[in-house]
């Protein structure tokens, strides 16, 4: 009880300083709990949606996916004859059955040809209005569609695009464009995660999406009273045979949930990873806080020891303070995490992904995980300072200052740090020189971990040299004040090293990712310049296939010399070494693609691969399966018959664009795949006539005005798009890393604040002999700046080393250009100086307000 009272007294005696450490714990715990609550809520939302929209048993055409995505490579959904519906109705245990037809490979436009599809990546679904949808949608305006000129739209899409009854919209599918006017608006009765849904009557949906009537994509079956879903499935299969996909509601919902879970898991673990980085940075803050508090209470601890307190009691006293800090910060962090999750849901709403707070899910494990993490991390971080406190001898009570540092421990720390850093450098070297990407990645991971730990351990040794250099360059211009700031930063190298290390971690990751991102852009740009021989690339940013109508519109555009189609399909390969490779990708293109993409070959001529019954393979594939020029590969196309194709070219595997692609001609593909099953184009390449690039660019865009799902890019546009995509990804990562940097800033603030308290008497004496308030504040600001720049130098140097090594590994995948983004590095370095200035504002202000006489009289 005495230990607890002492801990409580000390905790509240330093509540201002503890608050900053508590904020670090709070932020880290909030990020963890917010991530868990947000992803749990997303899972709950989708669980409810799938449960509400899934029939007892669903019958789908062969080729349909388990998740309900029914679009095939030809842009049309796989279908089954309407007779299947009649057979299903005759199965035992069926209460009702209804045929449906829908597709997600569609684009819907308004009268001005502007896309009505979601910008969040959620699907656009067009189908027939049916009883299953009526369970989850309520017609709140107008009526359901009853003819070819009518369509119904969901209320969220109508609100977003200001649609009203009578407005004309167009449904663009592989069949063509179907226009209709809005007859009704239906409102979701469950949470809509962002999909845009349009309903036609059944006959119109069949004609607009499939091009024929008398077919369905699905049959929704409802079980009779007392019949289980599993039994109903068996009865339906017994009736219609095994030629169709039959799933229970649970199977369909599980497949949909697994698809969503894959995305959510990536997001969840990525965010938890950044929370872990923030926790790591927070450890330095907590260690520094308790180390300085222990140092400032050396005399008090010595007196406690002199009057009979044991080492164990002193140790427990400090750990009890850490426990209070951990509990306080964690409890607030859990509450803040729920608020963060709600904020993320609102943010997703701005991105058209609507999540209701009614589905907010806070599992009992979330606060438990938050509390455990916060408390355990805090107590572990305080263990070393607590252990140091327990070793204070009673004789320390007679001293005015803390005991000198253990020189032997400092030397040992230096040796360990140098060894770890050296081992990490060896790991990075082995990664950079590896000839196998998988093995190199393992060396890279080991090198990153060891160099990071090594720099943290050896930081106090580096502080002396680096701070002196920074002082000579930056601080000496401020005269005596600058020299005092330098000496203050050097006074306790361990403290300076730990404070700088907290900032180092976040900036090292920023520098590493900047180097990797810039190198990826530079490598891809270099490959584009070297290999792409066409002027324009047309594709859908949402992954939509290019319809035949859009291709014909491009071919009719004036000013073009050629248009090259590019298709992709799968086949089963039987190779000369006797192996069968299932679902292997093969690319079919026009012969002009050999000119549009100047792919390097190691044997043969790529143009020959576009001859009848010919193909190319890539170098690695040839080596793995004993293939050479003239070899014959049996290719069983997924939607057609089997071909015997002769290998006419072997391409280099050391490329970025189309890496690993195997080519044949579209004419060869058409020989073995029926016209109604031919895959649509993934991309289309267009080349302008000499001197007509600008006019052709304008004409091509005009030709695709009615197809807003496709984007025309010249090489400049394509490079910029690539740069923007990587830039957006990096900005998101930088935003997540900002949490760690904020915690590091708190560490600088805390270190300075405690340092000012530690030097209260010294500050009073300096003020007494003539140091002005302004000079005092400047001294503290300069000390903060030099500590921040020390961390920035270590972090940026370390990060650039990591990034350069990672680029060497990426070179094995064809990304051969190393580019250091010096502008970003300089901005981050200069920004670190401003971070130091900002962190010193409050400590400098408090120091300047000290009463000189009271400061001098401080013990």
From TrEMBL:
InterPro entries: ABC3_permease_C, MacB_PCD, Macrolide_Exporter_MacB. Residues 274-394, 736-851 form the ABC3 transporter permease C-terminal domain. Its main location: membrane. The keyword Glycosyltransferase does not apply. Keywords: Cell membrane, Membrane, Transmembrane, Transmembrane helix. It holds the Pfam family FtsX. It is found in: Cell membrane. It is a multi-pass membrane protein. Coiled coil: none annotated. Residues 19-237, 499-700 form the MacB-like periplasmic core domain. The chain crosses the membrane at residues 269-295, 318-342, 362-384, 412-432, 444-477, 498-522, 732-757, 782-802, 822-845. Belongs to the ABC-4 integral membrane protein family. This is FtsX-like permease family protein.
